[in-house]
Amino acid sequence: MDLNSDLGEGFGIWKLGDDTALLSIITSANVACGFHAGDPSTMRRVCEEAAKNGVRIGAQVSYRDLAGFGRRFIDADPVELADEVLYQIGALDACARAAGTEVVYVKPHGALYNATVHHEKQAEAVVNGAKAFKDLPILGLPGSELLKKAERAGLRGVQEAFADRGYTPEGTLVPRGQPNALLTDTAQIIERATRLQDGEIVAVDGSVIKTRAESLCVHGDTPGAAEHARAVREALGTVTSFA
């Protein structure tokens, strides 16, 4: 199982999460590309630390929404959205190459991630933007339009699960702001991670969802994220990148 986390989500003097601690634990880093968070110096620093730790770098692309942290849906024009995805990947890849590495996958952030579960045009736009850069794997929710579009375009669709987010009985994420959207208890997060090895997730209503996941996310902005990630890594035993 690959273990990923969202990093580089500070901006200017504003800091969020412990990137350094997480980079000593995870195998893949979803790095903010400046649209929902991040700035050039933050991006370059995270890429340098990721390279030193042997952590793979992914572009966490988003709507252009710094004020809302990329957690507000935007009815973006698909052509413009594809171009913005391409722009973000290219910017992060420049920072990665300066650190002696490169961007090796793409993952949408926040509202864009959730939109591409069902929104065909935006899912296709993300895929088109990624493919215009390079045939990179794309992380997404199992069964999502995003992964379907990726595979049809000849890209690898990587099924992802979340150790610290609540799930609806339909297998989608409980919207932030609603009860049980976020898991903050380490024991619950470990149970989620270990149960995923058997292909199961327990939804907020207690029902069991059958699923497969190649990559497991622990959010970098979750309280105690580094401790949660370290506990999950120890519980899983062996973690390996998905490619």
TrEMBL record:
This protein's name: LamB/YcsF family protein
Any Pfam family the entry gives: LamB_YcsF
Species classification: Bacteria, Bacillati, Actinomycetota, Actinomycetes, Pseudonocardiales
Organism, as annotated: Lentzea rhizosphaerae
Domain of life (superkingdom): Bacteria
Family matches, as InterPro entries: Glyco_hydro/deAcase_b/a-brl, LamB/YcsF/PxpA-like
Positions of transmembrane segments: none
